[in-house]
Amino acid sequence: MINYNIRLKEVIKTFTKRLFYNLFDEQFEETVFLKKTFLEITSKLDIKEGERIWNEFQDQFLTIREKLNLDAVSFLKNDPASTCIEEVYLAYPGFYAISIYRLSHQLYLLKVPIMPRMMSEYVHGVTGIDIHPGATIGESFFVDHGTGIVIGETSIIKNNVKIFQGVTLGGLQVKKSMQSSKRHPTIEENVTIYANATILGGDIVIGANSTIGANVWITQSVPENSLVTYQTEIKIRPKNNGIH
Prior knowledge:
CATH superfamily of the largest domain: serine acetyltransferase, domain 1
Number of strands: 14
Shape: globular
Helix content: 40-55%
Number of helices: 7
CATH architecture of the largest domain: Orthogonal Bundle
Strand order of the largest sheet: 1-4-7-10-13
Distance between the termini: 75 Å
CATH class of the largest domain: Mainly Alpha
């Protein structure tokens, strides 16, 4: 019988949580634990040069932290419900999902197999936000509410983008033959995408400074400075209160 190391799911869960905590509240003992656990995981996954990868990964922690600080400020600036920066770090699932994305993305760039996806799937289960570690996301990224967001592997999101719950950045077709091609859209700078919008296709570009309204379905590129909305007719009539 093949051993798939299924119990690594629990190890990855613990590793991911403690990695996030240590990124902001660094402690020597915790760093030692994280390195030891990382080497155990890479050994189980038959990943070579685990220590070299860990050292290169750790060297990026300060840069990742700086990017996340910009993300946190974006949450504070854009969400009228936020009261202080501490609330963003401690209570926002969108910020947590972005944090684990930025960590797992670095491992993805270091060509670590499987582990980045396991980290992203852990936080997906916790937050309902599905960001593939292969996606490219710029600075000051803001996710409001977040539940149901899907961001595919080859998505490109540039700086100062805001995305609301239920948004999908997906592929227009699902074919194994497209594995090495760009399948997901590009979102230029300063774009806002409102709830439940669906944007599909690797050739699709949403131009800078555009606003994509709620519930729209987009399969063609949008020029910069555009407003895209879905219109439906809603009729409201008063009750007759039983009078005939």
